[in-house]
Amino acid sequence: MRIWTFLVIIIWMFTAAESVKGEEKGKMNQGVSLPSEAGGWKWDGKEMEYDSRTLFKYMDGAAELYLAYGFQNVTVRRFEKSSQPPLIVELYEMASSEDAYGVFSFEHQDEAVGIGQGSEFGGGLLRFWKGRYFVSIYAEGEGAEVEPGILTMGRGVANSIPGTGPEPKLIGVIPGKDFGLVAKSVRYLKNHVLLNQRFFIAHQNILNLNRKTEAVLAQYLQDKQKTQLLLIRYANLKEAGDAYQNFMKAYLPEAGGKDRLRTEDRKWTFARQRGEFVVIVFGAPTESDAEALLKATEEKMFGGR
Amino acid sequence: MERSWRGMKDKIITRRDFLRVTAGAAMAATVESGILGEVRAEPTAKVVLIRHAEVLGRQDKVRGEILQSMLDEAVKNLLETNEPMGGWKRLFKSSDVVGVKSNEWNRLPTPKELEAAIKRRLLDVGVAEKNISVADRGVLNDPVFLNASALVNVRPLRTHHWSGVGTCLKNYIQFVPDPWSYHDEGCSPLGKIWNYPIVKGKTRLNILSCLTPQFYGRGAHFFDRRYVWPYKGLIVGTDPVAVDAVGAHLLQTKRIGFFGEDRALDVPPVHIMAADKKYHLGVSDLRRIQLIKLGWMEEVLI
């Protein structure tokens, strides 16, 4: 009898460890019912919530990143398990799914784990996005069960987020792996400070990025040569034209009316305006490489027209 | 932009400035010409790096007595005294009101053992316990900090999302009510804080805890164990810019060793150079910093 009771308890423990229970709605994220338990970690019952005015109290300097992507609020829950470090779940509600994608893309560097619409897991940190939500889950220490626990928690949180949302359309315009696209390098950017953090161009905002512009930065790798592609969409033709002229004057003043220059690193920088778009290739090893990448981008932008 | 780079408004620094010569030299030359535009006498600074192989125990638990001896030895060598207390007494008077500006970022806080070691020596100097406060985010509401005659600046060495590196200069951002206003241009305006009355001229000692520094990372809110290593050291000096320059150099050297290249930080730590060239808070040029290395030398890197 004791053996049967023991077995029942063991089976219950294993099934409970994989199950994810619902919990009452948070005050801010009305659309999401975060789990109260996952992988054996139980919610401690407290919930911290921050909006755009109070986010700075939670972040040590990183709040601007989230604010740049239409941050609405963040809900933070702590989960505990005996003999294991606590897990922290941060659920960020952004203005749109494009913004959630943007936050995710900005720091993307690890391998995907198939959670949400895009995910990565490395160094004990799980990051993913789904719909207009960006989620970060990590442990406050190390432990044998931590990594599977974080992933189980991540799946539970992802399941609690209803629906999905589109990626930024601009992402679909850049050439793909046939040109050597490094998938983890694709960044969806909203301002020049963020652009400079990923690829420094100039201290001043020489590309006139503003609240109405959107940009994609991506790295291409061919024969160990790194090339950067920057694609920017402006609100209208005039803004794109002004930005293009400003860039050429500040960055390629010796180009002499051409759209290209071999810079000091003996690599090629190309820049073109096409309608409300500005496309720039940095660091192409040869002129023809840069031309090919630009042409492929233009074809995807206008469908070969 | 205008606020932090007033003297440079006619010069746009672009990526090509980095490409023209080696990255560091290019940046230094460009920024220096923009900010200073003049030649002046070159001051120097002294910084102590001290390490001990046994300062961390199991699970990186700090051995307080070893850490205390490291700190004492650093102060003794920095102040060139025969005994550690002689150094401490040159830095502080018994009548001082001392704020120990720490850092409580929960992923990598200033070790409590280090805070305790500093406080112990302040008490040994004769500073009244009621006149000592150790704090981070509460400094603007802390009567000791508000009335401080002296400050100790102590924090862990790590990378930082907006300033490139989180070092001593960055640690004073809690002395202003609007920290986010100082994040422009790689936190270059940080140096301005050091000239505010609550801080100006009060910092007697700057300490970077390098017991387990973080040499790479993504986002200030992010901690990644892959990029933290047991360096088991302290960087100590009276010049915050020099201490930070040495700290930034250590992290850069570690990145090169780890990645095989100097993988770019979120932003280059230009605020250190700005603190030197624009705010005149100390020496950022490594060639003008006398680095005294003490203790354990295995994989010292710098």
Can you put this structure into words, describing what you see?
The complex is a heterodimer of chains A (305) and B (302). In chain A, a hairpin with a 5-residue loop joins strand 11 and strand 12. With 305 residues, chain A is an alpha+beta fold. Helices cover 30% and strands 30% of the residues of chain A. In chain A, the strands form 2 sheets. Chain A has a 7-stranded antiparallel beta sheet with strand order 1-2-3-4-7-6-5. Chain A has a 6-stranded antiparallel beta sheet with strand order 8-9-10-13-12-11, sandwiched between helices. Chain B is of the alpha/beta class. In chain B, helix 5 links the parallel strand 2 and strand 3. In chain B, helix 3 packs across helix 4. The N terminus of chain B is likely disordered. Helices cover 32% and strands 18% of the residues of chain B.
Q: Which short descriptors sum up this protein?
A:
heterodimer, A: 305 residues, alpha+beta, 7-stranded antiparallel β-sheet, 6-stranded antiparallel β-sheet, 8 helices, elongated, disordered N terminus, B: 302 residues, alpha/beta, 8-stranded mixed β-sheet, 10 helices, 32% helix, 18% strand, globular
The helicity of chain A comes to 25-40%
Biggest interface: A-B, 34 and 37 residues
**Unreliable runs of chain B, pLDDT <50, ≥5 residues?**
1-9, 21-40
Estimate the strand proportion of chain B. Answer: 15-25%
Task: Count up the helices of chain A.
Answer: 8
Instruction: Give the C-alpha Rg of chain B.
Output: 19 Å
* Biggest beta-sheet profile of chain B: 8 strands, mixed
Beta-strand residue fraction of chain A: 25-35%
Residues in helices of chain B, as a percent range:
25-40%
Count of helical regions of chain B = 10
Report the mean per-residue pLDDT of chain B as an integer. 85
Largest sheet of chain A at a glance? 7 strands, antiparallel
Name the quaternary structure: heterodimer
Q: What structural class do you assign from the helix and strand content of chain B?
A: alpha/beta
Q: Indicate the overall shape of chain B.
A: globular
Strand order of the largest sheet of chain A: 1-2-3-4-7-6-5
Mean pLDDT of chain A: 87
Give the SSE string of chain A. Answer: HEEHHEEHEEEHEHEEHEEEH
In total, how many beta strands of chain A? 13
- SSE order of chain B, one letter for each helix or strand: HHEHHEHEHEEHHEEHHE
Q: Give the helix/strand class of chain A.
A: alpha+beta
